[in-house]
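Quick one:
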Amino acid sequence: MSEERKISMAVIRRLPRYYRYLGELIDNDISRISSRELSERMKVTASQIRQDLNNFGGFGQQGYGYNVEYLHAEIGKILGLDKTHKMIIVGAGNLGQALANYQSFEKRGFKLIGIFDVNPRLIGMTIRGIEVYDIDVMEKFVKEQEVDIAMLTMPKENVRETANNLAEWGIKGLWNFSPVDLYLPKHVQVENVHLSHGLMTLAYKIKDQSLTENEED
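Output:
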């Protein structure tokens, strides 16, 4: 583990993309692939792929390339996908319900076991078989079920207090969709997701492309 922590976050963030592309290769019955062929599919240089994978041992054989199924399984282990992670959602509004309906989480070992909200109209309903509970019982639920991850899709006003409580109750990771950056003790990992940032980046790219085309004209 100490060795893995020295690996740059840029490399770690590329691993899920490798995992997804390799999964697609398996679905298409492709059993081996070279770094050059993989680079053509992923639009990443072959040298970058080799450098990334060499951080974890390489996995390839000269003249053969990569065994797709083996590499997919090994990257899954590196990412911790060989274990089941129990998850809850805090906030059963539109975004929370959309995440609850996303079935691909389970294929990767993320098991949604509970949803929580303060709205009496939502409490008691089920989303894909998962019940929405009153947030007042969340502490007991998290401790008894030994929940690993909480997805936060709640208003920003209460998110910091909720995140601190979850950290005290033993949550290991927070996937935060609230418009507030969270910073918690080191034993709790946080991934802050701001959906509007992606749109603003896209808007910049569109504007930049338009300016470039006008300059060329």
